[in-house]
Prior knowledge:
Chain A is mostly helical. In chain A, 75% of the residues lie in helices and 0% in strands.
Amino acid sequence: MKRPLEPSAEGRGRVVGITDGVFAIALTLIVLEIRVPAHETVHSENELIAAVAALAPRFLTYALSFLTLTIFWFGQQAQHGLVAKSDRRLATLNLCFLGFVALLPFSTDLLADFLEFRTAVLVYWLNLLMLGLTLLASWRYADKNGFLAEGVDAETTRTVYLRIVKAQILWAIGAALCLVSPLLSVGFILVVQLIYAAALRAPLLRKIIG
Amino acid sequence: MKRPLEPSAEGRGRVVGITDGVFAIALTLIVLEIRVPAHETVHSENELIAAVAALAPRFLTYALSFLTLTIFWFGQQAQHGLVAKSDRRLATLNLCFLGFVALLPFSTDLLADFLEFRTAVLVYWLNLLMLGLTLLASWRYADKNGFLAEGVDAETTRTVYLRIVKAQILWAIGAALCLVSPLLSVGFILVVQLIYAAALRAPLLRKIIG
Amino acid sequence: MKRPLEPSAEGRGRVVGITDGVFAIALTLIVLEIRVPAHETVHSENELIAAVAALAPRFLTYALSFLTLTIFWFGQQAQHGLVAKSDRRLATLNLCFLGFVALLPFSTDLLADFLEFRTAVLVYWLNLLMLGLTLLASWRYADKNGFLAEGVDAETTRTVYLRIVKAQILWAIGAALCLVSPLLSVGFILVVQLIYAAALRAPLLRKIIG
Amino acid sequence: MKRPLEPSAEGRGRVVGITDGVFAIALTLIVLEIRVPAHETVHSENELIAAVAALAPRFLTYALSFLTLTIFWFGQQAQHGLVAKSDRRLATLNLCFLGFVALLPFSTDLLADFLEFRTAVLVYWLNLLMLGLTLLASWRYADKNGFLAEGVDAETTRTVYLRIVKAQILWAIGAALCLVSPLLSVGFILVVQLIYAAALRAPLLRKIIG
């Protein structure tokens, strides 16, 4: 007998569909914060060059959020590749994760507008933290309820946990640096994202970030 | 002989594609209402903290609409998982449902801006009502025209109907509470959404919300 | 030997993916024109009711464009269901079609803002015309180059042509009515869309709109 | 034993999903720059005709960016059709490419607003250049790491390289023309895009653009 919303492979496919959709939109929305200079304020080539150059902080936060989205897209994908099926609760945890993905354009915009304030850095970090926590919660749920694919051994399961925790520790260090200077904080987090996104093979680095 | 738009499995797949797309966009658009404070109005950390704290009602309506979208995404998915094929009319009913999904960012925005007015609560409730009615209509159509998958028995069919009706009754109670206070109304609906989204296993609750 | 962009079933799948994406976004963007009233202008329940009621023309054009998108989504789908593979040119024609789908939120907005001007109606009709022409061109291209699926006979091919032409004739009549009154024009087109979207089975109507 | 994010066919499918999503959104966002004239400034049919006609430069840059997106969508698709699987780095290169796709609405808007300034043309060209470079990098990576599908011979591999390089040479010539006049530059690039998008079969042209 067929019942609604039983754990199924199709439910898993739908989660993939909505996830890629939300990421695609978030990736495009963070660009909207890079606003074209007002036409009235520009009267010469030099003024336009200056106006475009003045957008530098927005390009910086764009790059930062772009890398963040990249990293979490891979994080979600790495998990999902190891999950064989999805029930309603796992899908709900995934949607909570997407809810924080959808908030990233807001955090990014706040950061771009208030790069000199610690509060903006902390809100951004909180967003990173919630992304990690929801990812952790869905991995734990899939693990405990036997939704993992065949062939996923204890070591792999542990690796997934560790990666999330290690990244969060690095970002927490980054956030703490805003006690020194908000810009240092952003710079540190940006470097961390670059390292993750590039997925460097350097053995030492591998050992640190797992 | 092949004819255009016959009931088919491919038509069903297209409906899934556009549904996940509209939900993904709606999920991301409701965030756009959380607007970053204007730079001119903020001169210190404390002012920024105050400005972010002042966004609280918008975070509240964001959470509310996020939960609503989650619940209806599952609702559509629960139905669609039990439907074997789709003809043009069933797809049209599904698109009407999506039309009200697309309206949710508007209702949410109205609610966030006018949380103290009954009219805003009623418009939001009307949106919930139309979402339920279009879902009910497509289930009825699929049921009457033999589009349900094999193995869907009478009890399951009835469960789907009952769930929609029960949720609508709870939201109607919530909407009626705005006679007392619009905020009480929103609070009640938010609690209902939380219970549905969490899909609690508590037997008593299960009996009430089916 | 494998060559880039040969006619293939995968190319056909990609076209479906981007089509559903553009339609989903267009469906959601046309709602953005229904703007929430400014908070400063509203001081009581009655003023909010009046402000929401004043949005009526926008709800009207929303409904109109929603129906238009529905009809063309089915139109594209009806064609694509009869096409077995897609080469680069067929995909380009499809993208041109999507280009005019993407323009529909603009035409809708213009119409909502200038409902009393003939120019707005004509721009909207031009959009409908271009949607039909690009659809016609891709059907013709698929037909002439042997991309149609097996089992598509001459009668079905002709039916697809006729449907597009008949709809265009009805819209042209609607557009011509703006010589009498722009609102009459919009009303006529809205009724035509309703009939198409509802896909009525009335035999007389069937004979007229094919 | 299953490990996260190994090169797989599913990873390849996810890249296709997010790519079509970002392109669909970019295609729709570039339209948002065609803004409906303010209602206060229009009092007659003639004023509305004039106001719509004044949007001509925006329709021009819309057409330009629409063609650019079309060409790069095919470029990505041509590559992806020849790639059998994707690992995390190839996916990262693809996301970088998408990052520049997402920037195109910004470059388009800048160009539409400052069509008379060389700086705007150069920013637009830089965007085209980065799109080409990221596409080149991912092709090179797939080629060097044995991710190409069976049956892709050396000639096809070379053809893909050559196409990217030839297009970049043409756009560089176009960008250089802005020393004469920015509008000439835009016109030249627009003609190049038209030729590519139409995929003309003219043998002479074929020889030049490969």
